[in-house]
Amino acid sequence: MTSPVDYQLEGDIGVITVRNPPVNALSQAVRQGLHDAITAAQVDASKALLILCEGRTFIAGADITEFGKAPLEPYLPDLLDTIEASAKPVIAALHGTALGGGFETALAAHYRCAVSSARVGLPEVKLGLIPGAGGTQRVPRLAGAAAALDLISSGAPITAGEALQLGLIDKIVDGDLHDAAIAWATKLVADGAPVRRSSELSVPDVEPGLFDEYRARLGKRARGQIAPQHIVTCVEAAVNSPFAEGRAIERELFIECMQSPQSIAMRHLFFAEREAAKVDGLAKDTQRRPIDAVGIIGGGTMGGGIAMSFANAGIPVTMIEISDEALDRGLSIIDENYAGSVKRGKLSKDAAVSCRALITGSTDYTALADVDLVIEAVFEDPDLKKKIFAQLDEVCKPGVILATNTSYQDVDQIALATGRPEDVIGMHFFSPAHIMKLLEIVRGEKTADDVLATVLRLAKKIRKVPVVSGVCYGFIGNRMLRPYGKQSQLLLLEGATPEQVDKAMQDWGMAMGPLRVFDLAGLDVGYKARQALSDDMKGDPKTYRVPDMLVEMGRLGQKSGAGFYTYDENRRPVPDTAVVEIIEQVASEFGIERRELSDEEIVERLISALVDEGRKILDEGIAQRAGDIDVVYVYGYGFPAARGGPMHYADNVA
Ligand code: T1G
């Protein structure tokens, strides 16, 4: 088998090229190839060595598919020692995303250059891991402890410009990377540039209390996760110990993370997220329709957030509202959101201005005559949605994709309101739509393959994580939320309080407990949905009597200042004995004797409710695979990534 690593002498420079598509991951063959090339070059005519990669990116990390299997030599830390020990200067030339073990490889080299579009980072923490090949020891030596803690604990990549400022790379080159890197390497040789080993540097002075501050901050931000805390331990070791000792601590903690259920869960999600974008039976080369302009029906919270998602990806948007007042209101919400993103440093002022400029409004449907996709985002009235789709059928040109943002309505029924059901699909965004990553794509009975393929590709362009669902009441996420919600009501009647249920779930890792979620969504939403259902479909009255009573008392949730909790002036939930009294009254009406419930029982019953419904969804083929359900719950419902999603948890942990 040909090695994925090639070595050529170009003048005085030994050029080592990695070719391991799609992302030049550090598979065993790549590690072996690099090792052999570096070793051979020590005794040939080369005066300096250059490592670069073909394809879309420099090495994007260790090969995650090898994790959990018996490790094969050469081990990455040993390979990087070999690179750093080279007697001849080694230069790494970066493009695309130099991540994880890929960036660690570059840090073991003596010099680093990059094209300006390159990004570098150590995202291991997103896999429940820590850098395992010297990253926690070399980054602090080059950029300082605080910068290292930020880079490694966030896992977020930085630009080449930021890396240059931090001293993590030495030069940004223009034009063709290969040629520019050869030219720079030749100059370094001509200038007699020495080998420079970052492992021999010491970490610049550290602010007192830095590590305790990070432990506390990460303890809040990544509750219950082990990797972030181990990162702090390793960077602290870089300050207090020689390189070899610090690296040994890193290795020990890396192996602990690798074997942890948390990392196994997060690695499962890494691949599940990528699998979710693939649809059985949908050919990879399915023709896609061009989407150069989008229309949004409804300028409310969802409509505004959806409009921003497209504008932020450079796609012009026309937002339709029923009146000028409503339109102004919708556009001003968007202005506030952009101002907020700039204030939080998520977006530069210039970027906010140029994105906002892509959003226009109208009260006239004919303004949609030239768009390629329309997304309806009005409130959940099935007749109103059908009326809108019938209108769109009249004004939109042939080939336009007609999408509904409904959270649970029958997409097939909506499609039948048009003469082109094959062009109709569900695109269920999550609030706030310009932030939440999940996009549930609902494939209708008649939805055409090219419509589905187009929307799947588009999801990636607007930086969403797509999951495909079949048509059923509530699709994947909201359908599972119903039994979860019902179970929370039974737990209240049997003896728990709203704050006990929510605290148990939050301590277990959920971003928010069920009662707070319902208060945030608005209890009236569920109430109205129930009004449209028959008693049979509503199910056991024990599971909705309390929320019905709260709504009828005007306690609609956070938006009305009270629901299962009362909310203070800072929108913080405050337990309310009046709610407990209502729960006790309803319990006695149903003859339920209330008792002590343990947090374990609360968690077990709520998660089981999710999993049981998940299994039905799989049996019915509404979801293609269990991993899809996990991606929905982690990206859309605040399920802890460190537990891998409800189905992974049930199959691997519970
Ligand atoms: N190993 C194996 N396969 C990988 C991979 C990796 N590191 N990265 C991507 N792939 C596959 C992916 O499954 C998909 O396959 C295809 O490549 C394209 O990926 C010791 C231990 C690089 C930013 O965490 O973040 O190094 O589905 O669809 O959107 O310290 O992939 O086509 O069959 O995501 O353009 C650290 C992980 C590893 C980076 C490209 N590195 N990758 O994004 O394409 S841990 C990472 C990414 C480590 C060391 C430690 C992204 C990307 P398929 P894609 P993309």
Task: Describe it.
The protein is α/β, with parallel strands linked by helices and 654 residues long. The protein has 27 helices and 19 strands. The strands form 4 sheets. Strands 12-11-10-13-14-15-16-17 form an 8-stranded mixed beta sheet, with helices on both faces. Helix 17 links the parallel strand 16 (438-442) and strand 17 (465-469). The radius of gyration is 28 Å and the shape is globular. The model has no long low-confidence stretch (mean pLDDT 96). The chain binds (2S,3S)-3-hydroxy-2-methylbutanoyl-COA. (2S,3S)-3-hydroxy-2-methylbutanoyl-COA binds next to strand 5 and helix 3.
The count of helical stretches stands at 27
Largest sheet: 8 strands, mixed
Percent in helix: 40-55%
Number of strands: 19
| Rg of Cα set | 28 Å
In whole angstroms, the N-to-C terminal distance is 43 Å
Q: Name the overall outline.
A: globular
Q: How much strand content do the residues show?
A: 5-15%
Mean pLDDT: 96
Unreliable stretches covering 5 or more consecutive residues: none
Small ligands present: (2S,3S)-3-hydroxy-2-methylbutanoyl-COA
Lateral strand order in the biggest sheet: 12-11-10-13-14-15-16-17
Structural class label: alpha/beta
Quick take:
The protein has 654 residues and is α/β, with parallel strands linked by helices.
Top keywords for this entry?
about 650 residues, alpha/beta, six-stranded mixed beta sheet, about 45% helix, globular, binds (2S,3S)-3-hydroxy-2-methylbutanoyl-COA
Architecture blueprint of SSEs:
Layout: E1 5-10, E2 13-18, H1 28-41, E3 48-53, H2 76-84, E4 90-94, E5 97-99, H3 101-108, E6 111-115, E7 119-121, H4 135-143, H5 145-154, E8 158-159, H6 160-166, E9 171-173, H7 177-190, H8 210-221, H9 227-240, H10 243-258, H11 261-276, E10 294-297, H12 301-311, E11 317-320, H13 324-343, H14 349-356, E12 359-362, E13 373-376, H15 382-395, E14 401-404, H16 411-415, E15 424-429, E16 438-442, H17 449-461, E17 465-469, H18 477-494, H19 498-508, H20 514-521, H21 523-531, H22 535-538, H23 545-552, E18 566-567, E19 573-574, H24 577-589, H25 599-619, H26 626-636, H27 646-652
Parallel strand pairs: 2-3, 3-4, 4-6, 5-7, 6-9, 10-11, 10-13, 11-12, 13-14, 14-15, 16-17
Antiparallel strand pairs: 1-2, 7-8, 15-16, 18-19
